[in-house]
Amino acid sequence: MTRRDGFTLIELIVAITLTGVVALLVYGAANAGIDTERRVRARDAAGRAERAWRALVEDALRNLRSADQYGGPTLTLE
Fold it and tell me: Is this prediction's pTM over 0.85?
């Protein structure tokens, strides 16, 4: 019987290849998570802006008064 010390070249190549595949999978998953987080934050910001605009318009319409006098408060949407 011969005693083996160390690894063969094939074993090292297989280990390096498997490590590379695992690293690529982890990188892809992390990148997908970051992209998803960015899209969720953008959608959340757009939703907040829409709710603020809606509240502003509702408040303006709810408190709308006729301008009986010259220079009275009016609502102008541009």
Answer: no
